Automatic annotation (TrEMBL):
Residues 196-215 are annotated as: Disordered. Keywords: Membrane, Transmembrane, Transmembrane helix. It holds the Pfam family Anoctamin. One of its GO terms (cellular component) is plasma membrane. Residues 3-176 form the Anoctamin transmembrane domain. One of its GO terms (molecular function) is chloride channel activity. It comes from Schistosoma japonicum. Residues 196-207 have a biased composition (Polar residues). The chain crosses the membrane at residues 5-27, 47-68, 95-118. It is found in: Membrane. Its main location: membrane. This is Anoctamin.
């Protein structure tokens, strides 16, 4: 129990606070980037439309919120596993508390900041529309296109693996057939050379293979 309390104080709390600070920092970056893009759109002399310049910070915020949601879910699981709770109810309670805290702040801090600190309802409306659209696109990609792409990549990987295995088995069969036939050729060559050397060294043998008889 003391070890779990130390983990809660010196591991879980600093990690959660650091995650919340990252959310605040990303929101402040978004606000600063939005202000710069608004100024740039007012004096725009490029071919990029003003609508694109003004919308880019909102897209950045929506993507960062979606990525941080996935990261915070993994962080909450890791912290709860590291705390090593004895009961399943304690595990679930600590996990749900971390997940709600991190994802709530991550999802709604920028909206509260825009609504109550900046008090810009027009920016809040555009921000909400962009967040909803980006999240819908990301969910569609994760549910439809990502499994389809994974299945296609798996098919390609399996076909490549099958082709490599087929080539390896073919080369193995060739090497085995060569090794099985090479001793026969070697033995026959040795026998022929020994017979030829015996004929050359023994004058009692003629070309027909019969012995010469001394008179």
């Amino acid at each position: 129990k003391r070890k779990r309390l130390l983990i809660l104080c010196f591991v879980t709390t600093p990690v959660v606070l650091l995650s919340l600070i990252i959310v605040i920092y990303i929101t402040l970056m978004y606000v600063r980037l939005q202000e710069k893009m608004n100024v740039l759109a007012d004096s725009n002399t490029t071919i990029i439309p003003n609508f694109v310049l003004v919308t880019l910070p909102k897209i950045f915020l929506a993507l960062s919120i979606s990525l941080m949601d996935l990261s915070y879910r993994k962080i909450a699981i890791w912290l709860t596993d590291f705390e090593n709770h004895r009961l399943e109810d304690d595990y679930n309670n600590h996990y749900v508390f971390k997940l709600i805290l991190l994802q709530f702040v991550n999802s709604f801090y920028s909206l509260f900041y825009t609504a109550f600190y900046l008090k810009d309802l027009e920016l809040l409306r555009k921000q909400l529309v962009t967040l909803l659209l980006i999240r819908q696109i990301i969910d569609s990609i994760r549910e439809i296109f990502l499994p389809l792409g994974q299945s296609r990549l798996r098919q390609v990987w399996l076909s490549l693996r099958y082709e490599q295995r087929r080539l390896a088995e073919g080369s193995k069969l060739k090497s085995e057939s060569y090794n099985s036939s090479s001793p026969i050729r070697t033995n026959s060559a040795i026998n022929l050379s020994s017979i030829q050397s015996e004929i050359d060294n023994n004058p009692n043998y003629d070309d027909s293979g019969s012995k010469e008889v001394d008179v």
